[in-house]
Amino acid sequence: MIGSARIKLRPWQQAAVAVGSAMGALLDPRRADLIAALGETTGKPAFERVLERMKRSPEGRAVLLERPRVISANVGHAWDLPENTFGAAYARFMGSRNFSSDDRPPVRFMDTDELAFVAMRAREVHDFWHTLFGLPTNLIGESALKVIEFEQMHLPMCLLSVVGGTSRFNQKQRTLFFKHYFPWAVKAGFQCTDLMCVYYEQHFHEDLEDVRRKWGIIPAPTAPK
């Protein structure tokens, strides 16, 4: 259950968790639990705005009503879809990296079940966005996706992740990111539809390029050799 492990924090406790999570995540960006805690403790106003947008969208309302979870039991059929489909592209993305949709940390610091679901949904659609934008999971790809996530949700954690990620770039990576990926990500995040209002699972059977056009997705640029 999304809300079964939720913890009610006082304001000073919330600030302490946010600071501790931020410091830990900067030291070790692989700590998904710290990044998740940072997103929750600093992102409540942003998640509230996302929730209101979802309530105004027919497809977003359906997501809120049915509360689909991106877990293997629910998305496993993507592996059986035709190779041109969005679902098959997602399956290839996950399978080629030995990723599991069941590995996301639970939401712990949201006040209500509804906000907890929105926070969990934002976490679980991350790999759908990787697939749609054609971004790798290396430091450059993750930093670029965080730019798009910030434009879509205005989560402080996304901005902090970009700062933390780019601080670890070597000179070649920094040049590549700011010359090619950053300008693209700013444009891509601004141009596409409100991605939190999309019921992705209902579009698995559709052609990948068709859903990209429908949602205004600009795929990532090819990195120069």
From TrEMBL:
Bilayer topology term: Peripheral membrane protein
Residues that hold Zn(2+) according to the record: 126-127, 130, 142
Keyword Ligase: no
Subcellular location: Mitochondrion inner membrane
A molecular-function term among this protein's GO annotations: zinc ion binding
Alphabetical list of Pfam families matching this protein: Coq4 (PF05019)
Gene Ontology terms: cellular component: extrinsic component of mitochondrial inner membrane
Cofactor (UniProt): Zn(2+)
Family to which this protein belongs: Belongs to the COQ4 family.
HAMAP family named in the record: Coq4 (MF_03111)
PANTHER family the UniProt entry points to: UBIQUINONE BIOSYNTHESIS PROTEIN, UBIQUINONE BIOSYNTHESIS PROTEIN COQ4 HOMOLOG, MITOCHONDRIAL
Name of the protein this chain belongs to: Ubiquinone biosynthesis protein COQ4 homolog, mitochondrial
Naturally occurring in which organism (per UniProt): Hibiscus trionum
Organismal lineage: Eukaryota, Viridiplantae, Streptophyta, Embryophyta, Tracheophyta
